[in-house]
Amino acid sequence: MKRILPLVVLMGLSSVAGAQPVAPMNILPKPLAMSLLNADPRVASARSTMDAAMLEAGIIRKSPYEWNATATGQQRRVDAGPNYNEWNVGIQRTIRLPGKGQADQDISGATVKLADATYGEVRHETARELMTMWLDWLASEHALEIANKGLASAKESLAAVEKRNRAGDASKLDVSLVKAEIADQLRQGNEAKVKAAASWATLSRRFPGIDRKVVALPVPSSELGQYETWRERILAESDVLRRVEASLLKSEGQSARAKADKIPDPTLGVFTASEQGARERIYGVTFSMPIPSGTRSARYSQAMAQESAARQDVDLIKRELEAAIASDVEMASGAYENFRIATEGAEAMAQNEAQMQRAYELGEADLQSLLLSRRQAVTSASNALQAHVDTLRTHLSLLIDAHWIWGLDES
User: Fold this and answer.
1) Contacts of 108 (CB under 8 A, 6+ apart)
2) Where are the beta strands (DSSP E) in 280-322?
3) Which of helix, strand or coil describes residue 258?
């Protein structure tokens, strides 16, 4: 309950318990995101790997044994007597005992589940990569806008200083200071431009097909939702958890197989033979079976140890997921509060800069105060942008983990 309380205060709860949290507007459209994910080479590779695993599962379901045909030809030579051509033909096959067939069915089913979970995990991680790169690029474009606004403001300040200088109310040093400020702002603008270009180059080459369309940053939703809602959904949709659970099922099947293998599979066959020049015909059956050794028991013990390790892995992943979910929900709620505070601060600083500019033009403020207010406005705007991006990143990460956006629940 202590963990949920901050969410009630800072974010508010959904009006209906367990309701799906609202995704921010203006994120990448679902059709575009699904197209980019499906075309990604890593996802395509995982899909091919899944196809191979499906074939492997089919092979496991079938008996590993095949029919074995035998044929022998010989000549019997008798001293001072005739020679006889003789032959022997037969067919035999090792029989998979019933208990082993069921174990193979279990291993086959677990192989399919493991392949599906692995594919989903790759698609999930690719979606997180897409989200991160898209946000980084969009943030860099908006950072460039802030830098350009700062440059325009600095040029406005220069015009005001030059006007006062011509009126004899400002020194040449003041003009030089503002020009130096403009030079620094130009440097910052160039850095922002380079970063935006680099971010776009990374995004567009990693995910070809996305348009360079700068949009307003999505507005984070104040309705984050309940912790229990996120926990239940993410645990139910987690591909990592499904993967280790499938590995456990496979280990259980392999343990059952190893236990059944303590009794070797028998080999049955039939044969017919011709001896003494076809004067004797022989018909018979064959039976063979390996004599088990301690190796089979050792393999069963090994399989049981691996099953125990797989069970511990499931418990570990559940704990790690629950810890991560709790941390992410807290971070998301805190990030939204930071975004709200930073936005209010940026608006206040922007108003202060405008008022200080007007005051300087009227001779009611000095140059240092004007430059300080401009720097504070640019810094607060940058801080607000970073807080905005951090909030979106935490919220979208939760939505991706819950498979509530971009059709991840349809993979």
Assistant:
1) 57, 58, 60, 61
2) 280-288
3) helix
Structure tokens at 143: 């950072």
- Sheet with 267-275, strands from edge to edge, namely 68-77, 83-94, 267-275, 280-288
Amino acid at 165: N
How far is Cα 249 from Cα 45, in angstroms, rounded to an integer?
24
Convert the pLDDT of each residue in 346-366 to its tens digit: 889 888 888 888 887 777 778
Q: Is 293 part of any domain?
A: no
- Contacts for 177 with CB less than 8 Å, ≥ 6 apart: 367, 371
Q: Is residue 348 part of a domain?
A: yes
Query: Does 191 map to a domain?
Result: yes
Q: Which two tokens stand for residue 392?
A: 């979106």
Residue 89 counted as domain residue: no
Q: Look up the pTM and report it.
A: 0.82
Domain that holds residue 110: 5-66+102-264+311-410
CATH of the domain at 54: 1.20.1600.10
Dist CA 384 CA 11 (whole Å):
18
Structure-token match 């405008």, residue found: 354
Question: Tokens 């096959």, residue?
Answer: 93
In the chain, the number of structural domains is 1
What digits encode the pLDDT tens for the residues 186-236? 998 999 999 999 999 999 999 998 988 888 888 887 777 788 999 999 999
